[in-house]
Predict the 3D structure of the following.
Amino acid sequence: MSIKYDYDVIIIGAGASGLVASVHSRGMGKKVLLIDKSSGKNSSKIINDIQLKSFNKYAEDVEKSRILSPLGITTPQKITTDALLATIREKAEMLSKFSSFTELNKLGIDTHSGKARIQSEHSVKSGTKEYSARKIIIAAGTQPMIPAIPGIESSLVITPSKLFSLTTIPKSICIIGGGTAGLQFASSLSVFGTKVVVLETEEKILRREDNEVVEIAEKIITSRGVQLITNASVEKIEEQNDKCNVHFIQDGKKRKLTVENVLLTTGRIPALDKLGLDESGIAYNNRGISVNKFLQTSVPSIYACGDITGPYYTTNRAETQGTIAAINALTNRNQAIKYSEPFWSLSLIPDLSRFGLTEKEALARYSTFSIRTFKIPYKYSMNSVVRDSSEGFAKIICKNNGTIIGAHIIGENSAELVTRLHQAQQNGTNFSNLSFLDAIFPSYSDVLAKPSLKSYVEQQSNSLVRGIFQAIIPHKKN
Ligand SMILES: Cc1cc2nc3c(=O)[nH]c(=O)nc-3n(C[C@H](O)[C@H](O)[C@H](O)COP(=O)(O)OP(=O)(O)OC[C@H]3O[C@@H](n4cnc5c(N)ncnc54)[C@H](O)[C@@H]3O)c2cc1C
């Protein structure tokens, strides 16, 4: 006789991955319970993404409007930021309604508001209630990593979500952490006139990224007045006259700066606390819950998806994993996750976007002679001329046979280009074939046209054909 459970599946966490997993599970006709400690309302990092990206978008609009001044159209010198912050909050409010418990209930998904703890391989407790399910999916995400710095508890020290609840943007700010989030805030805040200092403990910002791309990013950010201080370790923060004194050591020297606010972008850690992992025998480490390629944990009836499985924290990845976890938990299809490398975009105005291996990583994995790197500056794109946005360049790394293994692009709309390259790779499309696929003109697709044609030419065995093409394709020697 088969055991009777309350639900087919219980999902813990109504963030990007948990929501997708719930909707897919329900779509398969299953009985679903979604539990979130904060009713799923505005807690999901997806709302943070939307707020940050909207903020970046307005900064980009302001920055782009400056190129109109030669035409006699000028941007106001002073920008009122209260309306801007209010608009961003409204957007977040509006979007969080789409995934509210009320909307999910209309789809037939049961919801429970409260902190969940796994009791056994088939049961979850929240408050006084205990529910059973054939399968459990953990989608509890991450929480901010708060460094142990004396004075960090000051109300002038804020996290990204707190920044969007302010009524005006600070005139000066110290961002602790020169990683992906910190630099996006730095770039946009500087456009709105904030005096920004970024303190980074490492020797360089974005140390895992392609060196040439980072050099351009640094040049762009600092040209807006952002001060990047690397090798810096913060000693303490003191509140004085409604301002913060940030004491730090750089290269062995004690230094101090005074700002209106400190923004913490020191990274995130998986929200493993009090989930009952030890008691239920679920394996994990400091990077998150350990899963196999089917997103199954060490307990066969329990799956995990999204940021809690680490190591790359992105919404796109969390959502893809949410789908796969639901399919694998509730069907016999056993779909494997296909990717293992980063795939994301930063709004640094312009975007810095990436997927796959950097050139350095590719050289460490394959021999020098088996990979090929294509580089092309944005200024060779006709669309960049049309759109007055010729800053940036693209670097695409392929195996000699044209298989794409990495793309690193800094430039306007690079997120779309990198998505195109990632999809080509996932579909097994050779880089050289992109030059023969129809693309809208003018569009930034033309950034990829010349290097992909070059890749095609290099793969031709006929030296006459190679010679003719090489003579007619303008390209940068690299
Ligand atoms: C400021 C910021 C900007 C970002 N910008 C981008 C971006 O532009 N692009 C991008 O791709 N990614 C971005 N990210 C990352 C992205 O938001 C995350 O990768 C994604 O939201 C992760 O989804 P998730 O489902 O794994 O977790 P989350 O969205 O964190 O959801 C986890 C949910 O679990 C709930 N929960 C946790 N523990 C429990 C428990 N014990 N019981 C019940 N509920 C629990 C939480 O309340 C939360 O609702 C950003 C993140 C931040 C913080």
Summary: Residues 12-18, 35-38, 40, 43-46, 48-49, 52-53, 115-116, 139-142, 160, 181, 271, 275, 306-308, 313-316, 318, 344 surround flavin-adenine dinucleotide (CB under 6 Å). The chain has a mean pLDDT of 92. The radius of gyration is 24 Å.
